[in-house]
Specification:
The chain is mainly beta and 196 residues long. The protein has 1 helix and 11 strands. The chain has one domain: Calycin beta-barrel core domain (Lipocalin, Beta Barrel).
């Protein structure tokens, strides 16, 4: 019995920290749907979010001038929904599925072709929050996000894609002294292994 317990503890210690991020029910692993036929070209702007991702929450280290070590890792999954006419992505806090206080959220993203903008509703279980968000590719070529309701402090937020199916969402705030945008936090997403 002692050797079985020792082997179990050794295997847990050897597992990567992010392997135990969330419970099994947070993995979709291939059931991502497809866009509906005839969707606008812009519908592909969020194609990078389709899949299962481990998302590191990284603070900006102003002294080092670089992104710091992750504060924690969450799960972010995306799929096509509503018959392929929307993109639905879910967020799971670390420990979701086995730690009661861990919450989850869902974005429902719909492309408004008439206005040329993404309209998104974000719902979060821990605070029962509902946010009205917008996303659009702006002059800098980045897919930006901003909050319409409820009113929130001004932020500069955008998505970027990287190599190997990785992507990020960067947030900046205004420096109180200079009024310049400064890095604040980044969510860096890597494709998750579905067989964990």
């Amino acid at each position: 019995m002692k050797s079985v317990l020792t082997a179990a503890l050794v295997s847990l210690a050897a597992a990567p920290a992010f392997a135990q991020v969330t419970g099994e029910e947070t993995r979709w692993c291939g059931n991502y749907g497809a866009p509906a036929e005839g969707m606008a070209e812009e519908f592909a702007q969020f194609a990078f979010i389709i899949g299962d991702y481990d998302a590191d929450i990284e603070p900006w280290d102003a002294e080092a001038g670089a992104w710091g070590e992750p504060l924690y890792t969450a799960r972010w999954n995306g799929r096509y929904g509503m018959g392929g006419r929307a993109i639905i992505d879910e967020w799971y806090d670390p420990g979701y599925g086995y730690r009661e206080q861990s919450g989850a959220g869902i974005n429902i993203r719909i492309w408004d072709e008439a206005e040329g903008i993404w309209k998104t509703a974000w719902h979060y279980t821990t605070s029962n929050t509902v946010l009205d968000l917008r996303q659009q590719v702006l002059e800098d070529g980045r897919l930006h996000l901003w909050q319409v309701y409820p009113e929130a402090p001004e932020r500069n937020v955008w998505f970027e894609t990287h190599d190997n199916g990785e992507w990020s969402r960067t947030s900046q705030t205004r420096d109180e002294e200079t009024g310049e945008w400064v890095n604040f936090r980044r969510i860096y997403a890597r494709p998750a292994e579905c067989n964990r």
